[in-house]
């Protein structure tokens, strides 16, 4: 149970990452990814990377610079521009639904204007899911200058596009629906220099 704990990625740049194991029985037609990150990086870095054998950027949450997030589904992406950070924790939730191709982006409990992405697409189920590196091949192919350095916590993956109430609940760390990946019952394996530590503050 990682309640009130964080992964600390100590080095910059780094070859370290965390492998996550999700129980995915079927391909995803809808999903939501949420996580909280704390970093002083200004260079590009990967937060959440979900690759299949057919598509290395099947789901990717990537930060090319401090005032921009890129959200990939099936190798295509949309960009969400954000205010320059104040050097604080950032809580991000992104959701996508195949039927409408609607991509949602929430930062610190607030929604950004929705965008269109990959309508009718299906996300493959046999996946390598990593924190801290961007996969350029299934489970590997890293560019260490896209690695994450800093602290990550509250990582979730649902097989549904969460409602606005649930998006806000994720930001506030309230009760959440059962998830494919849930921080409080995470099945993970650390590869390299990543340390699990208590949160410094709430």
Automatic annotation (TrEMBL):
Q: Which InterPro entries does the record associate with it? A: ConA-like_dom_sf, Pentaxin_CS, Pentraxin_domain, PTX_dom
What the entry lists under PROSITE patterns is as follows:
PTX_1, PTX_2
First-listed, main subcellular location of the protein, grouped into a coarse class: secreted
Q: Where in the cell is it found?
A: Secreted
Recorded hits in SMART domains, A to Z, give: PTX
Covalent S-S links between cysteines: 34-93
GO molecular function, a single term: metal ion binding
List the record's Gene Ontology CC terms alphabetically. Answer: extracellular space
Record's keyword terms, sorted: Acute phase, Calcium, Disulfide bond, Metal-binding, Secreted, Signal
Q: One Pfam family, short name please?
A: Pentaxin
Identification of the protein by name? Pentraxin family member
């Amino acid at each position: 149970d990682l309640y009130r704990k964080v992964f600390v990625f100590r080095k910059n740049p780094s070859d370290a990452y965390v492998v996550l194991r999700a129980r995915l029985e079927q391909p995803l037609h809808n999903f939501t990814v949420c996580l909280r990150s704390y970093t002083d990086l200004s260079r590009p870095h990967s937060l959440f990377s979900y690759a299949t054998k057919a598509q290395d950027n099947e789901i990717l949450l990537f930060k090319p610079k401090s005032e921009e997030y890129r959200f990939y589904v099936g190798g295509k992406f949309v960009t969400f521009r954000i205010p320059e950070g104040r050097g604080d924790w950032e809580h991000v939730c992104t959701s996508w639904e195949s039927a409408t191709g609607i991509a949602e982006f929430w930062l610190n409990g607030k929604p950004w204007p929705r965008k269109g992405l990959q309508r009718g697409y299906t996300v493959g189920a046999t996946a390598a899911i990593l924190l801290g590196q961007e996969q350029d091949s299934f489970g590997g192919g890293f560019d260490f200058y896209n690695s994450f350095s800093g602290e990550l916590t509250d990582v979730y993956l649902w097989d549904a596009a969460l409602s606005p109430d649930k998006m806000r609940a994720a930001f506030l760390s309230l009760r959440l629906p059962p998830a494919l990946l849930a921080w409080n019952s995470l099945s993970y394996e650390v590869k390299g220099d990543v340390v699990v530590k208590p949160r410094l503050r709430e």
